[in-house]
Design a protein that fits this description.
By secondary structure, this protein is of the alpha+beta class. The chain has 15 helices and 17 strands. Helices cover about 40% and strands about 15% of the residues. This is Amidase. GO terms for molecular function: catalytic activity.
Length: about 475
């Protein structure tokens, strides 16, 4: 079984689903290979924290029986997938990485999982997250720390770090996650994956969740832009009782995303605002800055017009911190009364900051958000996309909560080292991290491409051109684990 599992490990989502649809591979074979690889690799990665292989294999046999009987099936029928442990899966434990929810079994599927299952995905388990997804390093008191397949002494980032680890290790080709301040983009950067934070409304928040939430967004990671586009095509779109749904077609199809199409990557009409350090607004480790800086030549070679400029993000930090505090206070405020001592100090502080917001804080943040919207409009009048770093640092020691210093300066809190992603989150713009190279020590570095709200498909097409031109995403971890 090990040989079969290794043979299937690096197939893309599109390749795997095509083999299943053609009957050249059974769902039972596919899920069995997935099960074998989790059993072999997960003890060292600590990425899968809830695991239901027997249920998954029973579902696989049902898919094979239905296919043999000629029953119409979804395009991903038989594809195994673990889900982020903040995403509800009916009948499966969902803990949010907290002892408070250690025995919580979900009664329903959340929207993203429901749409994946409608496409035919078989849910096999859950992947690790920081406690209540607070933080960009995946550790919690319930399950411990998830490590990086490229170097198990390093962080896989977070909060979708468990999902990143299983995809990067060849356990599954793609997966779901969510992103508030970089929780899809940072794990993608740390593990040489593609991670998209979509525009609000493509994967909408619906009742009984907070339907007005805008800062936190569900999205996907995969080993290729093409597979992320496929998942967006299958899962995005309006939902009942989701007032912020985007109703226009997504456009996540076409030759750029079709691996079999004769599509030449070129960006001759594209205007790129290139700003690895966001115009001097953020600190970036020298090796990261050098790797991402070299990408300017790639865009130039692809025919794009490259200008070294950044939008005015003066208002972004305040907008992000207030919006994040508000969401934590709104979503988890009741936990402080009942379970304060069971929450990590940083999480207690996040929630309390939301509960302490004044009218002036909220009014000021709304005014700053309007200023930010105007600033981004001005920038996108001159440029089609912004290109910057994803992570300001290389994957750091997994024993740390967050990097202790950046370019010789002490990092003041666990948000201060990740402004390359948090400032972009505040804009509401779609942003994708795509592999951009490796450090001298073999650690992955990601590049972030940002577009105006709603042009998620264009952002992915630009990322696809860069991916094809460089080939960095084809590099796999040696899996010393």
């Amino acid at each position: 079984m090990t040989a079969v599992a290794d043979e299937l490990a690096w197939l893309s989502l599109r390749e795997l689903s095509a083999l299943l649809t053609a009957g050249e591979l059974s769902a039972t074979q596919t899920v069995s290979a997935h099960v074998e690889r989790v059993a072999r690799l997960n003890p060292a990665l600590n990425a899968v924290v809830t695991w239901e292989p027997e249920t998954a294999l029973a579902s696989a046999r049902a898919v094979d029986d239905a296919r043999a009987a000629g029953v119409p099936l979804g395009p991903l029928a038989g594809v195994p997938m673990t889900h982020k442990d903040t995403h509800e899966v009916a009948g499966m434990r969902t803990t949010w990485g907290s002892p408070i929810r250690a025995h919580h079994v979900s009664e329903r599927d959340c929207l993203v999982v429901a749409r994946l299952r409608a496409a035919g995905v078989i849910a096999t388990g859950k992947t690790n997250v920081p406690e209540f997804a607070a933080g960009a390093h995946t550790f919690n008191p319930l399950f411990g720390t998830t490590v990086n397949p490229y170097d198990p002494t390093r962080s896989a980032a977070g909060s979708s770090g468990g999902a990143a680890a299983v995809i990067a290790a060849g356990i599954q080709p793609a997966g779901d996650g969510s992103d508030t301040g970089g929780s899809l983009r940072l794990p993608a950067s740390f593990t040489n994956l593609v991670g998209l934070r979509p525009t609000d409304g493509w994967l909408p928040h619906a009742i009984p969740e907070n339907p007005w939430e805008w800062l936190s967004q569900d999205g996907f990671m995969a080993r290729s832009v093409s597979d992320v586009a496929l998942l967006m095509e299958l899962c995005s779109g309006p939902a009942a009782l989701a007032p912020q749904s985007r109703c226009e077609p997504g456009g996540f199809t076409g030759p750029a995303f079709d691996a079999d199409a004769d599509w030449e990557p070129e960006l001759r009409t594209l205007r790129v605002g290139f700003a690895p350090d966001l115009g001097g607004r953020i600190e970036v480790e020298a090796e990261v800055a050098e790797i991402v800086g070299s990408a300017a030549q790639v865009f130039d070679d692809l025919g794009a017009r490259v200008a070294w400029e950044a939008p005015d993000l003066t208002a972004a930090a305040g907008v992000f911190r207030v919006a994040r505090a508000f969401e934590f206070g709104f979503n988890y405020g009741s936990l402080l009364d009942a379970h304060a001592q069971q929450l990590k100090p940083a999480l207690r502080a996040n929630i309390q900051a939301g509960l302490d917001l004044s009218r002036a804080d909220i009014f000021d943040a709304l005014r700053e958000r309007a200023q930010l919207l105007t600033a981004m409009g001005d920038f996108f009048a001159r440029c089609d996309v912004l290109v910057t770093v994803t992570s300001q640092v290389l994957p750091f020691d997994s024993d740390l909560e967050y990097p202790a210093e950046l370019n010789g300066a002490r990092v003041t809190d666990y948000l201060a080292w990740m402004e390359a992603t948090t400032l972009i989150s505040a804009t509401g713009c779609p942003a994708v991290s795509v592999p951009a190279g490796f450090s001298a020590a073999g650690l992955p570095v990601g590049l972030q491409i940002v577009g105006r709200p709603g042009v998620d498909a264009q952002v992915l097409r630009v990322a696809r051109a860069f991916e094809l031109a460089t080939g960095w995403g084809q590099r796999r971890p040696e899996l010393a684990v």
